[in-house]
């Protein structure tokens, strides 16, 4: 059974379409109008192995906030839908990814319980045209709409580009692990409750 999802969301601020395939090879077409955000989403797709098509037409004349937050919302909804009943998934994922002098770490639980712990301090206000405050906004909207407990951090680093990229790549690898089907739990849900 294919683990795919296609979701569209249109508001007065953004018009977004997201298509994903959890069992892909990280093939992607991404256009949000925010170059650095596209770079991060491309890394997320490639290193997770999740095929992604993401388009966003947002009110960038205001700023990037609505576009980044709303892409997180729709991508999270798509992930949740593609996971379906979560039978057989590993559920948990962890990654620690170096990017030169920076280290990104990510731990996730696809539990249905949404929570975010974000721990990263940026030196500057922007990466390209993307406000560095928006990284936390993306991770929050993504986690809460995916029903994911997400702990993501960059405990050290000097370059803001490297910090952000290390975290996105850590998220990607943790997602790859958590969404994989574990043959030891074929037909089962990995929970003592019997449900997620």
Would you write up a description of this structure?
34% of the residues lie in helices and 31% in strands. It has helices at 35-48, 65-83, 134-146, 160-179; strands at residues 4-10, 14-21, 28-31, 51-58, 92-99, 102-109, 115-119, 126-127, 130-131, 149-156. A 4-stranded mixed sheet has the order 1-2-4-3, covered by helices on one side. The protein has a 4-stranded mixed sheet with strand order 5-6-10-7, with helices on one face. A two-stranded antiparallel ribbon has the order 8-9. Helix 2 (65-83) packs parallel to helix 3. The longest helix is centred in the last third of the chain and has 20 residues, at 160-179. It is globular, with a radius of gyration of 16 Å. The model has no long low-confidence stretch (mean pLDDT 97).
